[in-house]
Amino acid sequence: MKSIENIQSMGIGLYFCYTRNMKTFEETQDFLRQFYTQVAKTTGGCCGKPAATSTKAEELGYSYEELQSVPEGAEMGLGCGNPLSSASLKEGETVLDLGSGGGFDCFLAARQVGESGKVIGVDMTPEMIARAQANALLGHYTNVEFRLGKIEHLPVDDATIDVIISNCVINLSAEKQKVFSEAFRVLKPGGRLAISDVVATGPLPEAMKQDPELLGCCIAGALTVPEIEEGLAAAGFEKIDVKIKPESRQFIQHWASKLKAEDYVVSATITAIKPIPKQSPVRS
User: What positions does the domain Methyltransferase occupy (predicted)?
Assistant: First the structure.
């Protein structure tokens, strides 16, 4: 097998042709982890997702001011929306970002929760963590922390998080129910889930689901809206709401363009609440 550096220099198309030789899902995931290591060392962007510009960020729902407010290189063009638009963050809250990448959403969240609040970013790639930590130092963020870990096994204590955000990451997980259950575990009662992710507009053909290229491009792992609703409900969430963003087809058409990805997936905003346990009536 060619080295990751050689494959990266060839471009994303040839890079992924080698993943088709992977025999197990674990091997593919390891290979993709290596790829995101390389993305962390560059300006970002993959699978036709361009590296960040003010125009591209605005397409995802961010303002020019937001893009300019964070350290250069924090926004890497890897998202599919703006989870903060539905998070309704408040001063003093503790926020957890699943798959925090270069730290862009963490830094925006840090401004909203203020110095009395805290933001934790979790990512499985050491190089992404290192890049985010460097960005935090550059931007003098004292209320942001980055932890190495998997979103299926969060390095976070029970019931310590007010709000969970995530941007185009959960679709990559092979164990989404574990992700939903872990999110539920770490949220405080009454805590909120506010994520942006891709959803399938219908059942994906099995051949697509098994295609490593389409997994890496945030297509093969997309769930349908009913699957997301059922998975979150099974984890214990209530007030589940999945809002499709039809306009997202404009930028998704550049992902795996030969496939016409916009015919299969769209971006969505997904929100849910961890219910507060009902108190038993006090007997006199």
Answer: 90-228
Phi and psi at residue 118, to the nearest 5°: -150, 145
Torsion sign over Cα 97, 98, 100, 104: negative
Helix (H) or strand (E) holding 181: helix 176-186
Residue 20 has pLDDT above 70, yes or no: no
pLDDT at 53: 57
The number of beta carbons lying within 10 Å of the beta carbon of residue 67 is 21
User: Whole-angstrom Cα distance, residue 61 to residue 229?
Assistant: 23
Which phi and psi angles does 73 have, rounded to 5°?
95, -5
Distance CA 224, CA 30 (A): 26
Contact, 189 vs 82, CB < 8 A? no
- Three-state secondary structure along 11-72? CHHHHHHHHCCCCCHHHHHHHHHHHHHHHHCCCCCECCECCCCHHHHHHCCCCHHHHHHCCC
Question: Out of 3.40.50.410, 3.90.1150.10, 3.40.50.150, 4.10.640.10, which CATH number does the structure's domain 4-273 have?
Answer: 3.40.50.150
- Per-residue model confidence as pLDDT tens digits over 116-152: 999 999 999 999 999 999 999 999 999 999 999 999 9
What is the separation of C-alpha 177 from the centre of its chain, rounded to a whole number of angstroms? Answer: 15
- Compute the distance between CA of residue 218 and CA of residue 198 in angstroms, rounded to an integer: 7
Instruction: Measure Cα distances from 136 to 35, 44, 106, 186 in Å.
Output: 23, 17, 9, 24
